[in-house]
Write a structure and sequence with these properties.
Helix content is 26%, strand content 24%. It contains 6 helices and 14 strands.
Length: 286
């Protein structure tokens, strides 16, 4: 890496009570890493590569490499597909940019739902939508925030990840593309000449170890890089207020309807460049 940005560390707690979580992190919208969130989960011991291969190794799964930084591709477009078991063999063999996300493994192995629980932290968990995330060493997820504005609780099961976070108030200086939840900055090696406003904002960084759960508040930007091959589980919760939930719905409509319609009407590459130019104009004024 040639361009380094300074990052603050994220609070870590081996034990964090419901009251402390609500007062110190949920209400002020601050990220935190908790060991107590998943400390009693059987999944931490049971969910090995071999166990998952035995349960649904023949299931064909979509795989992704990076899509939206320096690209006009849709981040939901998969790169290729292969049997889940073959993919797990692939990531154990060495580095690969391919990753899985939003995979509903529970459709094929419903017994996995018995291996984790939802702690009482004062948030309305979306209990029908847990997702497995799997990636090879050097795979990464471009910086973005969740489209529906949900809170994210990301638990690392195996392997390690590097996570970079920025608050929602930094969206313009992160050069957010209008109508989307993404930007063009590659946070593996950010181009500070092209994106000088990055020097004016403060990000946070951590390495997630097995058993760590990071709370990523609603609309917080997150960049994730697989330091090693690994498996993680994401539990999500809706924002606490109805105005915040409606804002999430509006975000979905902007991206899935308006943004995609304009891309088809104007042309994906031209529309992408318009959004990039627009993002720079807004950043200069920020």
């Amino acid at each position: 890496m040639t361009n380094q940005l300074p990052y603050l560390s994220i609070d870590r707690h081996d034990v964090l009570s419901r009251e402390d979580f609500i007062q110190n992190y949920l209400k002020p919208r601050r990220p935190v890493i908790m060991r107590s969130f998943a400390q009693n989960w059987p999944a931490l011991e049971k969910w090995t590569y071999e166990y998952l291969k035995q349960g649904c190794g023949q299931v064909e799964v979509p795989l992704y490499s990076e899509a939206f930084a320096n690209s006009d591709n849709d981040y939901l477009d998969s790169t290729q597909s292969m049997p889940f078991g073959a993919y797990l063999d692939l990531i154990q063999a060495g580095p690969t940019p391919l990753r899985m996300f939003l995979f509903n493994v529970f459709k094929y192995m419903p017994q996995l739902r018995d291996d984790f629980s939802y702690p009482d932290l004062g948030v309305p968990f979306l209990k029908n939508h847990p997702f497995l995330f799997v990636g090879g060493q050097d795979a990464y997820v471009d910086i973005h925030y969740d489209l529906d504005h949900s809170h994210v609780f990301l638990t690392q099961m195996t392997g390690t990840k590097r996570v970079i976070l920025y608050g929602s108030e930094d969206s313009k200086k992160l050069y957010r593309h209008p109508l989307t939840v993404s930007c063009n900055v590659d946070f593996r090696d950010p181009d500070l000449e092209r994106y000088p406003k990055l020097r004016e904002i403060q990000g946070y960084e951590c390495i997630l170890e097995p058993g760590d759960t990071i709370f990523i508040p609603s609309r917080w930007w997150h960049f994730i890089e697989y330091s090693t091959a690994g498996i993680s589980l994401t539990l999500r919760a809706m924002p606490e207020t109805w105005p915040a939930r409606l804002a999430g719905l509006a975000s979905i409509i902007k991206l899935k309807v308006i943004d995609q319609y304009l891309g088809k009407m104007i042309g994906e590459k031209k529309w992408y460049q318009i959004k990039e130019n627009w993002a720079h104009a807004r950043a200069r004024k920020a």
